[in-house]
Amino acid sequence: MNFKRILLICLLVSLGSTASFAQDRLSKKARKAQVNESQGTRYFIEGEKNLILNDLEKAFFYFQKALEFSPEAPAIHYKIAEVLVKANQAEKAMPYATKAAELDGENKYYSLMLAEIYTNLKQPLKAAEILENLTEDGENNQQYNLDLASIYLNSNEMDKALVALDRAEEFYGVMEPITLQKQRIYLNNNNLSQALAEGEKLVEARPGNPAYVMNLVEILYNNDRVDQALELVFEEISKYPNQPELQMAAHTLLKDKGDIQQSNHHLYSAFASPDLDPEVKSKAFISQLTEIKTQKREILLDSLETLMSTSNPENADIYAAFGERRMQEQKLDEGIDYFKKSLLINPKNNKMLEKVILGSFGEDADFNELEKFTTLGVDEFPKNPEFWFYDGVVKSAQKKDEEAVISLKKAIELNANKNPQLDQVAFGSLGSSLYNLGEKEEAFRNFDKALELNPNDEQVLNNYSYFLSLEKKNLDKAKTMSYKVVKRFPDNGTFLDTHAWVLFQLEDYEGAKKYMELAMKHEAEPSGVMLEHYGDILFHLGQKNEALSYWKKAEGSPEASDKLSQKIKEGKYHE
Q1: Residue ranges of region Disordered (predicted)?
Q2: What count of other Cβ atoms lies within 10 Å of the Cβ of residue 464?
Q3: Among 4, 94, 153, 186, whose CB has the most other CB atoms within 10 angstroms?
């Protein structure tokens, strides 16, 4: 009995030990699984952090580490695919996105990632298959019909695009982008009636919106249905008489039919409204300027101008329209003034800026005023070489030579040899400013560059030869250049004066006298420089009293040399 009892106790102990060992083994597996899951989660979180920070390399590393611990986790496959797509590696992303979608077919974002990858790989119709499956799955995914329609449109699958757009319209209701796209498809298929039906649907869904009426009117007009278009416009005017867009449409259609009186009636109504876009008014006004000039046209323009002044005072587009009319009437100063007013409100009109600048050059140019607009040009259009060129020329004319050099060099740099004429004139102007700044050798190099492009530029030839004469350098070259100019322009006092002074420096005093007398003859009031130079020539010809007389005539002139008072005081020539 005792032996049996002892044996039973031993057996129970043995069984208990075996059960305990089995439990220990299962616990280790569970613990290991928990450790793996925890480690994988930590790597996944690190991957997410780096993805948010757009550190794609680190994000990819951590997601790959997470995948080692959880190879069947669809979210990790999805995230790796996302990283690779962001890194423009769609092909490498494909297997990960495919695996994510296989592991969890219910998650639409995995399918959308796959569709995106197909699109990136230029396989849009495969992307469309995925979106088709999504949109078939109840109402929750109907928003993807617009993406689907876009794919079909880009793939020229117009019938399928229409189906997708119809489904999108069912989901969103009647919307302008959907309607307009459907119209384009129908018009492309020569299905005018269906295109019109779509437009009518939009007008009914959004009553009182003139843009949708204009859409229909445009389609009708472009398909030679002017009467039908007019009928629609009149019907809408009867409902909404204060909509100026409808009045403008009636004006255009009636004018097309030749009913000018009724057309102008609607034009007046449109222009009287402050709600009509001033740009529309401006364009309509300018279009009237293209009509044959008659008394009726002028009365119409006067009336429209009054209406615009009243309903849209101080507007850039309106000032521009007034300016165009004045320019057509050859009232150039008034036209330029209106353009200036327009530009001070809206300076982003490069063509008008150029009109103002070019129209303001002349003998009586106000360079201080003009500089406001050349500065505006380089500020608003800093990559346009023309405005830098104009700015340089204007600054040079004001003796702001340091600033002129900066602008002219910038003009040449931006031009990059595209416009040889601009380069040529810029080199010439740059030469003059550089000479004034004492950079004489660089000035002469720029004059040479200008003459390489145009050997007959009279301004460059004149300035170059004059500066050479002042330096008593290359005088034979100076003589050849200045003679070339006076031969072409025998009545120009400035050019004759330059040639005379070149001859003076060559000690050809008789020749100098001849050309200086011609220069003064062609000037209503000879400049102080001419008078002083003529005195210098006479002195060297032995006519000292006459020389003194002309030096005294030059006295007080801002153009006279700093040696003039000494010449008068001592009665002799000083260089």
Answers
A1: 555-575
A2: 28
A3: 186
Residue 303: predicted pLDDT: 95
- Does position 346 have pLDDT exceeding 80, yes or no? yes
Sign of CA dihedral 471, 476, 478, 482: positive
Q: What is the pLDDT of residue 141?
A: 85
Question: What is the Cα–Cα distance from 121 to 264, expressed in whole angstroms?
Answer: 57
CA-nearest of 127, 76, 82 to 104 is: 76
> Does residue 320 lie in a domain region?
no
Q: How far is C-alpha 22 from the geometric centre of its chain's CA atoms? A: 78
449's tokens:
């560059």
Mean pLDDT of 468-491: 96
Return the pLDDT at 132. Answer: 87
Q: What is the mean pLDDT of residues 194-220?
A: 93
Residue 136 included in any domain: no
Residue 526: CB partners within 8 Å, gap ≥ 6? Answer: 493, 519, 520, 534
What is the number of residues in the chain? 575
Amino acid at 549: S
Position 52 pLDDT exceeds 60: yes
* pLDDT tens digits along 245-291: 999 999 999 999 999 999 999 999 999 999 999 999 999 999 999 99
Whether 103 is in a domain gets the answer yes
Residue 131: pLDDT over 50:
yes
User: What's the CA dihedral at 561, 567, 572, 575 to 10 degrees?
Assistant: -30
Query: Exposed, middle or buried, 363 (CB in 10 Å: 0-12/13-18/19+)?
Result: exposed
Residue 25 has pLDDT above 60, yes or no: no
- Count of structural domains, the chain: 1
Q: Work out whether the CA dihedral 99, 104, 105, 110 comes out positive or negative.
A: negative
- Domain range spanning residue 89? 39-122
Q: Are 93 and 79 in contact (CB under 8 A)?
A: no
Domain at 82, CATH number: 1.25.40.10
**Domain annotation covers residue 479:** no
- Non-local CB neighbours of 207 within 8 Å, separated by 6+ positions: 239
Distance between CA atoms of residues 120 and 429, nearest Å: 54
CB burial readout 207-243, b (16+ within 10 A) else e: eebbebbbbbbebbbeeebbeebbebbeebbeeeeeb
SS (H, E, C) 506-541: CCCHHHHHHHHHHHHHCCCCCCHHHHHHHHHHHHHC
How big is the CA angle at 526 (ends 459 and 555), to the nearest 5 degrees?
115
CA–CA separation, 389 vs 166, rounded Å?
A: 57
In Å, what is the CA distance from 505 to each residue of 13, 239, 285? 133, 87, 61
Residue 395: partners with Cβ closer than 8 Å, 6 or more residues away: 371, 374, 401, 403, 404, 407
Say if CB 78 and CB 100 are below 8 A apart: yes
Reduced to 3 states (helix: H, G, I; strand: E, B; else coil), residue 399 is: coil
- Asked if residue 352 lies in contact with residue 320, where contact means CB atoms within 8 angstroms, the answer is yes
Distance from C-alpha of 247 to C-alpha of 250, rounded to nearest angstrom: 5
